[in-house]
Amino acid sequence: MKKFKLYLSIFSSLLFLNSCELNELDNYPAPNATISGGIYDKETGELIEQDIIRGSQIEYVEQGFSNPENQYMVIKNDGTYQNKLMFANTYTVQLVRGNFVNMEKQEVVVSGDTKLDFQVQPYIRIKNVSIVKEGNKIKASFNIQQTIGNNVSRIVFFAHKEPNVGDPLHVVASRQDINAVTNEATLYTLEIDVQANQNNLKPGSDYYFRVGALMNAPEAKFNYAPAVRITL
Question: Do the Cβ atoms of 39 and 79 come closer than 8 Å?
Fold first, then answer.
């Protein structure tokens, strides 16, 4: 009986301590602010489309700590972003590993619903895009306007059943290596043969097709034109 009372006392103490620890955890403040916005072409005012997988990111550091960690926000396929789990505070924010010219870090005060848009210079603008079905082929034609003097590495025509089709997400792709500075007057053409890719492209199904171009720059990501849906 004495042993039983001893075990009961120890068990009660453990429950009490555990309850105290949970109360301490519950006492931490919850996120109380949000931040949202978009990545815009500073010349055209258009959103700059991204890859969600291995795409551009927003790096942010919360100030007021002795050894703060770098945190990251993913940018959506259409070039917008949102983080609803922020704490009201001052942050150092920077766009990193993108398809645009690098930007300097900036300080942002986040409180309530904060709006922060980025005005950037994309490496490449894909213009005058035409994507059409002709017989058993899907054909893309377009011009390239590059904004820096580096070589354009390659152009690619992607296909997938999801609208966020691109470099990390495609079932078929038609590529052309460029490795040169491009001329905006040059009309580029790429095509995907549906019949030759019938294992991945099923007749009667809808697929999204998207043109991308990659600049030869450190950590550069693809620049894109909007995806087009076509029924095969």
Answer: yes
Amino acid, single-letter form, for residue 205: S
Virtual CA dihedral for 33, 78, 216, 210, nearest 10 degrees?
A: 160
Of the candidates 139, 133, 227, the one whose C-alpha atom is nearest the C-alpha of residue 187 is 139
Taking the C-alpha atoms of residue 3 and residue 209, their distance in angstroms, rounded to an integer, is 74
DSSP state of 29: P
Please tell me the predicted confidence (pLDDT) of residue 66: 82
Q: Residue 9 pLDDT > 90, yes or no?
A: no
Question: What size, in residues, is the chain?
Answer: 232
Residue 140 has pLDDT above 70, yes or no: yes
User: Which two three-digit tokens encode residue 119?
Assistant: 């005005």
Q: Look at residue 96 and give its three-state secondary structure.
A: strand
**Phi, then psi, of 168 in degrees rounded to 5:** -85, -5
Beta bridge partners of residue 169, listed in sequence order: 166
Strands 172-180 and 152-160 turn out to be antiparallel
- Domains, the chain, ordered by start: 33-120 (2.60.40.1120), 124-231 (2.60.40.2060)
Residue 232 pLDDT class (50, 70, 90 cuts)? very high
Q: Tell the residue number behind the tokens 């171009």, with chain if given.
A: 213
- Residue 28: pLDDT over 70: no
Phi, psi of 12 (to 5 degrees): -65, -40
